[in-house]
Design a protein that fits this description.
The chain is mainly alpha-helical. It has 6 helices and 2 strands; from the N terminus they run αββααααα.
């Protein structure tokens, strides 16, 4: 079951994204998301690797292979998916990704491969992405 986990699981569990290939599950108190398609999961894994690699400078990290802290991981996932969505449909300005799988397929069709995406523009969205503030946290002045 572990290898069927969705690469964008955290983004889906945050209720800021959804995907037609996602299946939610819970074991005891742990919630998770599995992907129903090996091809979709591989494409999303590839996209996430590219997003992490291209966003290293804005995240101020040198190595993204070992994983990122939660906040930076969410910034890459949500900022990256929103940035990709804005590249595919700039007129819509939506801040929520309704279907990750469809978005990735559309991007592959439009650009020929995930490697050819306009990462310079997408990374700008990652850099500008602000996660939700929790509780009584006050912005610093």
């Amino acid at each position: 079951m572990e290898n069927a986990r969705c690469p964008f699981e955290k983004a889906i569990l945050s209720v800021q994204c959804d995907c037609e290939m996602a299946t939610r599950f819970s074991i005891a108190e742990q919630m998770g998301v599995e992907c129903r398609s090996d091809i979709a999961r591989n494409n999303c894994t590839t996209l996430l690797v590219y997003l992490r690699e291209r966003a290293r400078f804005v995240l101020k990290v040198t190595d993204t292979s070992a994983g990122l802290p939660f906040g930076k991981e969410m910034k890459v996932m949500l900022g990256g998916l929103i940035g990709l969505q804005r590249q595919m449909a700039p007129q819509e300005g939506v801040a929520r990704v309704q279907n990750i799988h469809a978005l990735v397929q559309q991007a592959q069709a439009a650009y020929g491969s995930l490697d050819a995406l306009p990462y310079q523009e997408i990374v700008r969205t990652i850099a500008a992405y602000q996660g939700k503030r929790r509780g009584n946290a006050r912005p610093s002045r």
